[in-house]
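User: Second chain of the day. Same drill as before.
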Amino acid sequence: MMSNVLNTSDFVYGSELQGRGYVTKTDIILGSGTTITGMVAFCGAMVNFYVIKNLNVFHNPFGFFWAARTVGELGSEIVYATYTGPITLVQPTNIPPALGIFAYQFGITFGYVQCIMHWAVSLNRFVAVWFPLYYDRIFNRKLCIGVVFGICVVAFVLVSLYLIFPCNHVGYSPRFHGNVFVKCAPDLGRDNSLIAPTLLRACFSIACAATGIINLATFCKIAHIRMTSTVKYKSIEFKRDMRLFTVGVMQDINMIVVVAAIVICNNDSNTSTFGVLLSYDGLVFIYILNTVFMTFFNPECRRFLFKTIPKVQASSCIQPTEVALHPAVWR
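Assistant: Same format as last time:
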C-alpha cells in the first residue's frame, strides 16, 4: 500500500517529454542530424513547388497531387527543423507537455496527408497508363480538389482520435530522441498508445501495400506495351513511363521500410539508436529522397534547374508523345 502511495506521489504527467537537463554527445549528433535533415527536406519541398509552378508539364492532375503530397511532407519537416532537432540539442527540463504532444499531432496530421497522397499519386499514374484516353475525364479539376480535400479531412479526423479516447497521447521526447507514449496515470497498466499503432498500420496498408499493388498493375501494362508494340517501346513516352515507374517503386520501398520500423518500435522509449534513426529521422529522410527522385529523375526538371532555359522553352522540351503520364496542361 505504501509503495503505491509513493509511486502515485512521484508521478508527473508529461515527464517523458522533458529533456535530461544536460547535453550528451549522442544528443548533439542526433539533434544536429534531425535539424539539418529537416532543413534540407524543407528546401527540397521548396524546389518541388518551384518546379511545379514554373514547368507547364506539371500543370495537371499529377502536378496537383505531387504539390499536395509535398504540403503533407512540409508539416513533419517544419517540426523537425524548428522543434524536435533544436530541443534535442538543448535538452530543457521545463517543456510544457501540451507542446510536445502538439508537435507530434501537428507533424502526424500532415504525415497522414502525405501518406494517403502517396496512394493517390500512384492511382493517378495507373489511370494515365491504363486509360490515357479517359484520363482528363476522370481526373478533372473538381475530382482532384475533392480528393485532396477529402484526404485532409480524413487526416484531421484520424488525429482527433487521440483527443477523443483518453490516455493515448504521444509526444516527442528529447531525452529518448523520438516520439514516446505519454502516461496519464501511474497505475495505467500499459506503456503504449492504443490509437497510434492502429493508425500507423492503416497507413502502412494504404500507402505501402495498396500502392505496391497499383504500381504492379501499372508495370504489367507497361510490360504488355513493351512486348506487343515495338514503336511504343522505343517512344519517349514509354521510356518516361518506365522511369516514373522505377521512381515509384523506389519510393514505395523507402516508405515500407520506414513505416514498418515505426510500427515495430511503437513509440517505445527504449528503442535503440538504429531504431530511432530508422523510425523517426527516417521519415523525413525519405521526403528528401522523394524530392530527389521526382525532381532529378525527370530530364525536363534537370534542364530547367541546371541550365538557363526560359520557362516556355523548358516546357516545350516535352514531346507530344510524352503526355500519357502527364497529359495536356490542366485547365
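Confidence is low (pLDDT under 50) at residues 1-6, 310-329.

User: Great, on to the next one.
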